Amino acid sequence: MTHKLTQGDHVLKVDTLARVEGEGAMHIVVRDGQVADVELRIFEPPRFFEAFLRGRAWTEPPDITARICGICPVAYQMSSCLAIEDACGVTVPDELRLLRRLLYCGEWIESHALHIFLLHAPDFLGYPGAIEMAADHGPVVQRGLRLKKAGNALMTLVGGRAIHPVNVRVGGFYRLPTIAELRDFRPTLERARDDAVETVRLVSGFEFPDLLQPQEYVALRSPHGYPLEGGSVISSAGRAFEVADFGSHVVEEHVARSNALHARLDGATSYVVGPLARYSLNHDQLGPLAREVAHDAGLGDECRNPFQSIVVRAVELVHATDEALAIIDHWDGAPAASIDVPPRAGIGHGATEAPRGLLYHRYELAEDGTILDATIVPPTSQNQPSIEADLRAFVQERLDLPRDELVRQCEQAIRNYDPCISCATHFLDLTMEEQ
Amino acid sequence: MTRPAIVIGIGNPDRGDDAVGIQVARQVAVERHNVLTLEFDDPSEALDAWEPEDTVIVTDAISSGGAPGDIHVVDVVEQRLPAGNWSSGGTHALGLAAAVELARSLDLLPRRLVVVGVEAGRFSQGAPMSDAVLDAVPAAVDAVLTAIDATKGDP
After folding, report:
1. Is residue A149 part of a domain?
2. Which 3 state secondary structure label does DSSP give A376?
3. pLDDT value of position A4
4. How confident is the model at residue A256 (pLDDT cuts 50, 70, 90)?
5. What CATH code is carried by the domain that includes residue A155?
6. Which residues of chain B have pLDDT under 70?
């Protein structure tokens, strides 16, 4: 028989929240029919990488931080390169910046395809996972795998390999792809773009539970187009500041239940980073094709329903494939694969848009380039307070659901954020307790 | 010309015993030059690595409740991987069992697919491999080589 949360005291435990990258736990307390508390518990080896970076050379963060996450290594490489170059007073030339953007497109394609098709779509189509979905929707899953493969291939072409790319260095790359290699990749990307457009059509037809996020949205804004490999910070409440001022606006606080840090904007405001924030603050920067499919999918200038993040990710897939094609068509080489980045004493900041949202790095260097201090603020730790707030509102409206269904919907709601908890945690166990 | 056997090591080299799949694949590469070895830390990457006619051996850390260092060899074409914690101990977005079963659902399994799993003890970030698992690497390498050799002469 099924039980409802209003039918008596119980503690409900789900062993693992599947289909979330990494590990963690969600605990929900219901008291007298009201949601009393929602906690996202994070069990991160505390800031292991930040400690590990101290004492290392200024050239090492791209390789070291790429290992924080197998799904978004490029994001860590790009933010760390920007921060180190900022500390050293160096800016890479445009032709290398474009290659970084191209590499980043590969990561977005790979990561978004993984999340849309293998992790999130089963929620909407009513399957426990991609395996079961594949039995009935084989061509759909194969489209997802094709897209994922195209993203990986692009990362391999520019980054040397897909997982933990080895071709990225402070100041640029070790080896440049040839123009011929890039042009040869065109057919794969054209097919991926077609697949991405079909993906928007598919996911925009899903049914989306009602939920509107009231939180402030935060994303980068770039003069070079839809934000990827840099920019300055803007928010839906009108805040605007340079990445160098990130630390004075975003305060990370220790929370007793978690050994990951919770980020707050200007000390008080929980906020959201990621596809919805990026889209809502930068939709005017999307390419014409992505804008057209977004319009056809019914997206307005702003999207505040986290369940529709799957549509926004699909629109970003279209943008990433389309922009990658444009870069390949226009890139005509660079004089050198990298520029010199001589060390100097100083502090540098870097932020880029990881698939899951804004990723900030800060490094303090000694005169010889030794890293004295490192700070990394990943997207998921910035979103944690908002995930909790979302869940609080979401569960309150659904307390009369059978608990299995409620847990399923909660898991789906958490997956809206595509939380990359391995950047910050272990398995996600979901427990619900009524007092 | 027959394609070489493919040995895929899965895991994160920076998370304790999760590194064992990578270590075994690297050792196989030293001992057999006619084998293609690959490394992934996301098992779903493996789906792109093989063709239908290939012989593939996947080596990975597993967590099924046994003693650290225990070795499990499963012919995946013949039988399913146990559900549960096979290969979910690291930072994998899709566990090995899920990736294999996804391939089965889509009729993407290679001709021969054998998993050599090494029971892991710890997955702590930044930790080295435990002694028990480190000691099991030679036997796991032998299991991989045996699986490759068992394929020779198959139609």
Report:
1. yes
2. strand
3. 37
4. low
5. 1.10.645.10
6. 1, 82-94, 125, 152-155
Residue A359 lies in a domain: yes
Smallest Cβ–Cβ distance between A131 and the set B40, B41, B105 belongs to B105
ipTM of model: 0.75
Mean pLDDT of A292-319: 96
- Nearest alpha-carbon partner for A385 in A208, A210, A244, A213: A213
Put simply, the answer to whether A163 touches B42 (Cβ < 8 Å) is yes
Question: Is residue A30 included in any domain, yes or no?
Answer: no
Q: Give the global pTM.
A: 0.86
The domain made up of B6-151 has a fold known as Rossmann fold (3.40.50)
Q: How do residues B69-85 score in pLDDT, each as one tens digit?
A: 999 999 988 888 765 54
In a domain, residue A392? The reply is no
State which residues form the domain around A319: 48-333+345-382
Q: Say whether A422 and B91 touch across the interface (CB within 8 A).
A: yes
Which residues of A fall within a CB distance of 8 Å from B44?
114, 118, 145, 148
The nearest alpha carbon in chain A to B108 belongs to: A142
- Identify which has the larger pLDDT, A245 or B33: A245
- The 3-state secondary structure of A116-165, one letter per residue: HHHHHHHHHHCCCCHHHHHHHCHHHHHHHHHHHHHHHHHHHHHHCCCCCC
Would you call A16 and B45 a contact, using CB atoms and an 8 Å cutoff?
Answer: no
